[in-house]
């Protein structure tokens, strides 16, 4: 493997994930700030907010389905095919959201179309991170796998920065302009994003590890036959993504719609936290290459479970200073311990024959739970001062994820070729990776 190839793969994963998750995060921001008024105006303010956040969660329902389909494609026909497809699907669905008529124009058809496009976004996201993580892990040097795979998650943070930064001037528009055309602009901008991402991913080479691998006709069947325990472990650990959805969607909605804080400062909390995360994620991943995946991941989970309490409290009392400091500590530092490590922690549980399927299915089922976390905690914390129930729910998820990781094998010193249990396949279950789709 040449010295430049790991860097090229990591850069491609970073850029692709940044572009992909720009699309995904602008939906979450719009769901928190706008969609309750544009698509659910007939409902009460509280019900409209709940329905709007539910459409954000609907995208996660499609993720497990997409994980089975795209996991199969990625493990049988290659990581590159999945990465190109997911980018195009996300881009088309996102652009079309910006073109939707509102409830005032076509009635109930408007939220129905919104849900359909959100499902397509979820299908796309199901294969994105697993494909990018598999690509970067299989190119990475033996002793730096956590560092190189962490660039996929750095890319998601960059995508969130871009999404939030674009919404800052949009959110500052007068209310009538914001609700009529302003909210559409970030979705239309995805056309440029997709064009750049498509060029980058089309020029990316397939991984040498995949090209040397005898691929199974039914990777998912092999996955559940030999790796079912690891799939369940990843599902439980992946629920830690609830911290992200609660921070980026619920807390924003709670601050603006319930407490009455200004939109712009709350958006800036996300921008600054993600800027800090851009530096923290690779640093904490490098630490995991030195001391192991489990200590860093578990510490990050438990720190998130502790910090969510003062962060939500700071919002409830309207203290901008505290919520900035605590938001950065929670999402910029503590959650980076999770994001910096999970690509290698989860990916190293599986061999190359089932890696993309294992990561995609395990994470996307866990992420499906996380996707509905804003709706669940919105119902829990419907009263103005009931932030404590939301914090307790989040902390419980953090403990579950930490416990799941504690039962995993420590793999930071295991050679890439020895990762996962790879049984000798029978001739009837094997085709060469050169088979064309």
Automatic annotation (TrEMBL):
It holds the Pfam family MFS_1. It is found in: Cell membrane. Keywords: Cell membrane, Membrane, Transmembrane, Transmembrane helix, Transport. Signal peptide: none annotated. Residues 9-413 form the Major facilitator superfamily (MFS) profile domain. The keyword Methyltransferase does not apply. The chain crosses the membrane at residues 21-40, 46-70, 82-103, 185-204, 234-255, 267-288, 295-313, 319-338, 359-381, 387-406. The keyword Chloroplast does not apply. It comes from the Bacteria. It is a multi-pass membrane protein. This is MFS transporter. It comes from Amycolatopsis melonis.
């Amino acid at each position: 493997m040449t010295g430049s190839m790991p860097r090229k793969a990591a850069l491609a994963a970073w850029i692709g994930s940044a572009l992909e998750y720009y699309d995904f995060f602008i939906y979450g921001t719009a769901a928190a700030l706008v969609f309750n008024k544009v698509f659910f105006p007939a409902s009460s303010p509280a019900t409209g907010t709940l329905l709007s956040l539910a459409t954000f969660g609907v995208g996660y329902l499609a993720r497990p389905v997409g994980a089975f389909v795209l996991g199969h494609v990625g493990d049988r026909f290659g990581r590159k095919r999945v990465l190109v497809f997911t980018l195009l699907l996300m881009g088309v669905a996102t652009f079309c959201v910006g073109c939707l008529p509102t409830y005032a124009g076509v009635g109930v058809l408007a939220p129905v179309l919104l849900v359909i496009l959100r499902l397509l976004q979820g299908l796309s996201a199901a294969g994105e991170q697993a494909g990018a993580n598999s690509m970067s892990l299989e190119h990475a040097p033996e002793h730096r796998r956590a560092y190189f795979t962490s660039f996929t998650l750095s890319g998601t943070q960059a995508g969130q920065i871009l999404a939030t930064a674009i919404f800052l001037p949009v959110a500052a528009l007068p209310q009538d302009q914001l609700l009529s055309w302003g909210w559409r602009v970030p979705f239309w901008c995805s056309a440029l994003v997709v064009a750049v991402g498509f060029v980058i991913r089309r020029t990316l080479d397939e991984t040498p590890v995949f090209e040397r691998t005898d691929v199974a006709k039914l990777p998912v069947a092999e996955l559940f036959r030999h790796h079912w325990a690891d799939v369940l472990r990843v599902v439980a650990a992946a629920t830690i993504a609830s911290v992200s959805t609660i921070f980026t969607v619920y807390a924003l909605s709670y601050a603006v719609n319930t407490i009455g804080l200004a939109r712009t400062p709350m958006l800036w909390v996300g921008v600054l936290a993600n800027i800090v995360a851009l530096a923290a994620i690779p640093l904490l991943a490098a630490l995991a290459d030195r001391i192991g995946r489990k200590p860093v991941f578990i510490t990050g989970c438990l720190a998130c479970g502790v910090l969510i309490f003062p962060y939500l409290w700071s919002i409830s009392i309207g203290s901008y200073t505290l919520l900035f400091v605590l938001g950065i500590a929670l999402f910029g530092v503590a959650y980076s311990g999770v994001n910096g490590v999970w690509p290698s922690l989860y990916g190293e549980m599986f061999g190359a024959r089932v890696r993309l399927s294992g990561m995609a299915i395990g994470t996307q089922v866990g992420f499906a739970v996380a996707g509905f976390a804003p709706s669940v905690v919105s119902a829990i914390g419907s009263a103005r001062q009931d932030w404590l129930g939301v914090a307790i729910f989040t902390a419980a998820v953090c403990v579950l994820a930490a416990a799941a990781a504690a039962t995993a094998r420590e793999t930071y010193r295991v050679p890439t070729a020895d990762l996962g249990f790879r049984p000798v396949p029978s001739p009837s279950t094997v085709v060469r990776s050169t088979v064309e789709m």
